[in-house]
Amino acid sequence: MAGVRTRPLAARLCADLYAQSRSRLPRTAVRRKSGPYGYTQAKALVYSKNGEPSDVLSLHTHSISPSIPSSSVLVRTLAAPINPADINTVQGTYGSKQPMTSLIGTAEPSAVPGNEGVFEVLSAGGSSSGLAKGDWVIPAASQFGTWRTHAVDDAAKFLKINKEGITPLQAATVSVNPCTAYRILRSYGPSAGLKAGLAMKPLDVGSGQWFIQNGANSGVGRAAIQFGKLWGLRSINVVRDRETPEATDALKQELHDLGADVVVTESQFLSREWKDRLAEITRGGREQIGLGLNCVGGKSATSIARSLGEGATMLSYGGMAKQPVALPVGLLIFKDIRFVGFWLSRWNQKDVEGRKHMIEDILNLIREGRFRDVPVEEIKWDWDTEEATLRNAVQNGLQGFKKGKGVFVFGET
Ligand SMILES: NC(=O)c1ccc[n+]([C@@H]2O[C@H](COP(=O)([O-])OP(=O)(O)OC[C@H]3O[C@@H](n4cnc5c(N)ncnc54)[C@H](OP(=O)(O)O)[C@@H]3O)[C@@H](O)[C@H]2O)c1
């Protein structure tokens, strides 16, 4: 809050004790938006041990002191998606672990899941924070913990975004999936070597080189289709068959509308006929597929590798089928195919400035109507929303054949 100074230790301890006692109140307790001494009441999904979200997530209520350090801000969450990586983090199968702390007064050390989201600044501790009431911010680094109604943290932990012409859903989902596709195509597509922030410049890609991807209807896949189109690449997109031919056709059409050149179902892709169809697409092999993107694994990954041209790159960035990637050794020897992996979190740490440019670039494309966001299934999170509703929404997040990505949309919290 402007002009508020950090209080002495004794006062802070009282505040912490107050916060902890509030956190133990029964969930039916009547909520006052602003408690005694101006405390903000907040809720967060937390876990203290790894496991299935439905088993280990709980909704924790706590109070936030109005007295915050001058470099900090108090924010409220507007929207936060449920991405596969968030669930894997709760399960304990992700590549990095969140630290468990007692900062919000949970009985046991805990962590708040949620990698991305958008917050509105409610108050700033002082002008040194560089942020002001009403600003929109997203986490500056991975694993901030966005599945919560409010947070207080150092302003440096946030990245301010220009909210003009952007919806909370768009802001909440910009920093993981679109950025992954953007970065992969910039680094491994024919665009390699171009710096982030130059997306508006046409790339030097001649008549359009091919890339192929599975999981093409995922958030990353849809973004890759669109960036590919914008940057002069052509895409072959593999999706899983839907329950009915009509539903499959509708999904194919959605991807064509985003700019997909070819959309094939997994059953076609894994069949014997795929070789002939591929030859047709690549004009009897006169055109080659230079990049394969895999977020599935198993047979689908093997088929991606087999579809590639000589010297191509196959990049794995996800493993939705939870099956290992098996690669015929001939592809390594006779086709000299390069197999690489990509992890956005690592790239973000290496190039903080590049990440800012990339996010601005994508938000601009959204404003200009040149980039469409992923279909979502909104999960309303109001003050009275039950713990079970939130927990189940997370648990459902890894189920296949979804109509849209689950996103917590925060109402009157
Ligand atoms: N490496 C990185 O830096 C990075 C960054 C972002 C995302 N990722 C990864 O990218 C992948 C996609 O993430 P997202 O957020 O874009 O996904 P999403 O929007 O939640 O969509 C999930 C995708 O996975 C498919 N899928 C689900 N279960 C499957 C299964 N058992 N077998 C085959 N496909 C299955 C879905 O196809 P259906 O519609 O047919 O179910 C859909 O295409 C995830 O593995 C995620 O962890 C990695």
Automatic annotation (TrEMBL):
Q: What is the top-level taxon of the source organism?
A: Eukaryota
Q: What class of enzyme is it?
A: oxidoreductase
In its UniProt entry, what is this protein called?
A: enoyl-[acyl-carrier-protein] reductase
Known catalysed reaction(s)? Answer: a 2,3-saturated acyl-[ACP] + NADP(+) = a (2E)-enoyl-[ACP] + NADPH + H(+)
Gene3D superfamilies according to UniProt: Medium-chain alcohol dehydrogenases, catalytic domain, NAD(P)-binding Rossmann-like Domain
Q: Which organism is it from?
A: Stachybotrys elegans
One GO cellular component from the entry?
A: mitochondrion
Q: Which CDD domains match?
A: ETR
Q: Which UniProt keywords apply?
A: Fatty acid biosynthesis, Fatty acid metabolism, Lipid biosynthesis, Lipid metabolism, Mitochondrion, NADP, Oxidoreductase, Transit peptide
Domain Enoyl reductase (ER) as annotated: residue spans: 54-410
Record localization: Mitochondrion
Named from the GO MF annotations, one term is:
enoyl-[acyl-carrier-protein] reductase (NADPH) activity
